[in-house]
Design goal:
alpha/beta; Undecaprenyl pyrophosphate synthetase; 7 helices; 6 strands; 39% helix; Z-farnesyl diphosphate synthase activity; magnesium ion binding; UPP_synth-like_CS; manganese ion binding
Length: 259
């Protein structure tokens, strides 16, 4: 099995970054279009995306990223054809089983975020097995969002607040951004610093809406199966060049008045 952490085998060199994002989120888009351009099935496109994910994980570790969150299957993906949904369920299960030992060897901590309803029991088993195996790792936290949607995550948190209020466990007006964030299923995931979407599409697709309030957005034209650590590093370089204001402003340098 090729060790993707061995940069010499990839023939690439890690750039020097002015700053590195702590938390990177990625919408892995473009598998279907990649396959169509090659006369292949969408299933073949998804298979090709596996190597891309592994290379990006390796690149994130090398760059010093501490949290990587990927959109593996959304709550809206159930609208796809039954054949594609069946493949994606089995594919997610098989990838976890095949790669968890390798990720564990790299020091990756795997987390699953998503809803249980409709999700195959076998997929849940593999996700929970991977979580248990890697729970003490500290090199990188890889959060797999499977059967996840950000709007429903927020609605679930609101319903939890309503339940707590009905039991008089919280007082009206006492909810803060911090306390609300603790009720999200992604907790304790940090705020997103860099949000990447592959394939040229320029939208965030109901992914980490709350957590991405002040994220820097980078939209890559590269289709996901062709996305690797070099594209990740290019996105980090772009992130490094930006001034993050978090709603504030940066004063321009003062100049002497012209006489």
């Amino acid at each position: 099995m090729m060790d993707f952490l061995d940069v010499s085998k990839k023939g690439v060199k890690l750039p020097r970054f002015e700053k590195v994002p702590k938390h990177v989120a990625i919408v892995m888009d473009g598998n279907g279009r990649w396959a169509n351009k090659r006369g292949l099935t969408r299933v073949e496109g998804h298979k090709a995306g596996e190597a891309a994910l592994l290379d990006v994980v390796a690149g994130a570790i090398e760059a010093g990223v501490s949290e990587l969150t990927v959109f593996a299957f959304s709550t809206e993906n159930w609208k796809r054809s039954p054949e594609e949904v069946r493949f994606l369920m089995g594919f997610n299960k098989d990838v976890l089983r095949a790669r968890r030992d390798q990720l564990n060897h790299w020091g990756v901590k795997i987390r699953w975020v998503g809803r249980r309803p409709k999700l195959w029991a076998s997929v849940i088993d593999e996700l929970e097995t991977a979580q248990e195996l890697t729970k003490r790792n500290k090199v990188l936290t890889l959060t797999m969002c499977v059967n996840y949607g950000s709007r429903i995550e927020i609605v679930d948190a609101v319903n939890e607040i309503a339940l707590l209020a009905s039991k008089r466990k919280i007082k009206p007006g006492s909810v803060t951004e911090k306390s609300f964030g603790k009720l999200l299923s992604t907790n304790p995931l940090g705020n997103v610093d860099l949000f990447i979407r592959s394939s040229g599409e320029k939208r965030i697709s109901n992914f980490l809406l709350w957590q991405s309030a002040y994220a820097e957005l980078v939209f890559s034209e590269v289709l996901w199966p062709d996305f690797d650590r070099k594209q990740l590093w290019a996105s980090i370089t772009e992130y490094s060049s930006r001034q993050r204001r978090f709603g504030g402003a940066i004063d321009s340098p003062k100049t002497k008045p012209v006489k």
